[in-house]
Design brief:
By secondary structure, this protein is of the alpha/beta class. The protein contains 12 helices and 13 strands. It has 2 domains: about 170 residues, Glycogen Phosphorylase B (Rossmann fold); about 160 residues, Glycogen Phosphorylase B (Rossmann fold, 3-Layer(aba) Sandwich).
Length: about 400
């Protein structure tokens, strides 16, 4: 038989509910929109996906409620919301545009579930941002061409842009911060005594200077190991493959985390002789994390990442790079590790993003003047949880 609760019982129930829902003042509900070109974390290549995965797990470790929008086969400590079965770069039978058309709206249909969105999927999510009241931080991982710039400019009035290096800031855009990428130190083994080879790790593409790395290795008289995805087949076939001999110059293909760690730690130096303004260069800080110094051209972010004469050398051509190889043993490998841990550790990156999120949420003025009210149903597709945070205005 139903018995109506007494006023005292009602008050007690209200107090108990309030006690359960009382949050940590820094608690946030975060939605992370990742790339679906590859799963998270990537099996081999996938710098955007690697950064998004590192941040997501870092947010969870700090006690926040995090939902990751990524491929269904992604591995994460957060809640996973996936519409794509796997990365479209990993299964070429999949239609990238169709998968993107399902992936991006899935996040915005749940916008009411979050305090803030973290976009790591280029410009497309920006086109939905005026339809919700939830602020979105967009990390610009680089500009694939000038043709995508108008989209960023069109949403500059409401967007919160993060640059991944000062060198990659676009003068026509307003940025909330520059936050360098960070890597998990536990995934990289410090090696005090390396092997006797040089390493190229990255996309096989003219911009990355694979053929220049071969020139330097041959000039220095040292073996070169080439690892990475072939992004330009003609370049590989014409300028790289004919010079492979399986002994002094070898290509081992794309490598996963364990093999990447082994190759980086065992190298005398990483050769990063790029010919374009690199937005960041994740392999550079991964190399430093193992203690291996980097020889690079001073383009893009390289002067921000490499301490010339301490963690590597910035060079202008093959001759200077070859001379740098001859001096590489004079560098302190532990100094490389220490610099990487201090400046490019995952914890520092996570902390800086969380501080930016908190700053944005603390601002009282609305970021979407005149925008349409949130179109997503707050509970749509939601997993069943007990809320530990009151609804934010």
């Amino acid at each position: 038989m139903w018995v109506s609760p007494t006023p005292a019982l009602i008050v007690l129930m209200m107090l108990m509910t309030a006690a359960v829902e009382l949050p940590n003042e820094d608690y946030m509900r975060i939605g992370v929109i990742a790339s679906i070109a590859h799963r998270l974390p990537p099996r081999t290549y996938g710098p955007w996906e690697q950064v998004a995965a590192t941040l997501t797990d870092g947010f969870v470790a700090r006690g926040h409620e995090v939902t990751l929008f990524a491929t269904k086969d992604s591995v994460t400590s957060a809640w996973l919301n996936g519409t794509a079965p796997t990365g479209y770069e990993e299964d070429r039978s999949l239609d990238a545009k169709v998968l993107e058309a399902l992936h991006v709206p899935a996040a915005f249909e749940r916008a009411g579930d979050f305090d803030i969105l973290a976009n790591h999927f280029d410009f497309m999510p920006l086109t939905y941002s005026r339809f919700v009241n939830v602020p979105m931080v967009t990390t610009i991982h680089g500009f694939s061409s000038d043709q995508i710039l108008p989209v960023y400019q069109a949403y500059d009035d409401i967007a919160h842009y993060v640059a991944i290096s000062d060198a990659n800031r676009e003068p026509s855009l307003d940025y909330d911060a520059t936050i360098h990428h960070g890597v998990d130190r536990k995934q990289f083994t410090y090696v005090a005594e390396p092997g006797g080879y040089l390493l190229f790790l990255g996309r096989i593409h003219p911009d990355k200077g694979t053929h220049l790395a071969i020139d330097v290795a041959e000039s220095a008289g040292l073996p070169l190991i080439i690892a990475g995805v072939v992004q330009d087949e003609n370049y590989f076939r014409e300028l790289v493959e004919p010079r492979l001999n399986g002994k002094t110059i070898s290509y081992v293909g794309p490598v996963g985390p364990a093999e990447r760690d082994r190759l980086l730690g065992g190298a005398k130096a990483l050769l990063h002789l790029i010919s374009f303004a690199e937005p960041f260069g994740l392999s550079v800080v991964e190399s430093l994390m193992t203690g291996t110094p980097v020889i690079a051209t001073p383009l893009g972010s390289m002067p921000e990442l490499i301490e010339h004469g301490t963690t590597g050398f910035l060079v202008s051509d093959v001759a200077e790079a070859s001379a740098a190889v001859a001096k590489i043993d004079s560098l302190d490998r532990y100094a490389c590790r220490h610099d990487a841990v201090t400046r490019f550790g995952a914890d520092r990156m996570v902390d800086e993003y969380l501080a930016l999120f908190a700053k944005i949420l603390a601002a009282k003025s609305p970021r979407h003047p005149g925008s349409i009210q949130s179109v997503g149903s707050p509970g749509l597709f939601s997993h069943t949880t007990i809320s530990t945070s009151p609804a934010r205005p």
